[in-house]
Amino acid sequence: MKERHLLALSGGKDSAALAVYMREHYPHLPMEYVFIDSGCELPETYAYLDRLRTILGINIIRIGGTSSKDRKDFYYWLKMKNNYLPSIQNRWCTEVLKLFPYAKWLKTNCTNGLVHSYVGLRADERSDRSGYVTNGEKVIQHHPFVKDGLVYSDIQHILGDCGLGFPDYYHWRTRSGCFFCFFQTKSEWIGLYKNHPDLFMKASALEKYDPVSGKQFTWNDDISLLDLLEKYKSNNNYCKTSESKEHNRFVLPKLKGQNSEYYVNNLSAFIRERE
Ligand code: SF4
Question: Probe ligand 1: pick from 183, 189, 202, 219, max atoms within 8 Å of CB?
Answer without folding.
Answer: 183
